[in-house]
Amino acid sequence: MTTDTPTTANDVVIVVRLPHDLRDALKARAAVEDRSVASLIRIAARAYVDSETGAAR
Question: Which tops the pLDDT comparison, 5 or 43?
């Protein structure tokens, strides 16, 4: 498995169930952006947290 960021001792693995259509859309978007699905999920999670807290990255 390839990742966009190195694994650190602080990383946590999370398992998520997704509907097939959402999984397929994520895979297609990841391919267009030359990223992994995991990378897209991390980006989305950071954007969500930042938007909720008003934090800037």
Answer: 43
Q: What pLDDT score was predicted for residue 30?
A: 95
Q: Is the dihedral of CA 25, 27, 33, 36 positive or negative?
A: positive
Which pLDDT value is given to residue 1? 45
Per DSSP, the residues of the chain read ---SS---TT---------HHHHHHHHHHHHHTT--HHHHHHHHHHHHHHHHHT---
- Tell me the torsion sign for CA atoms 35, 22, 43, 5: negative
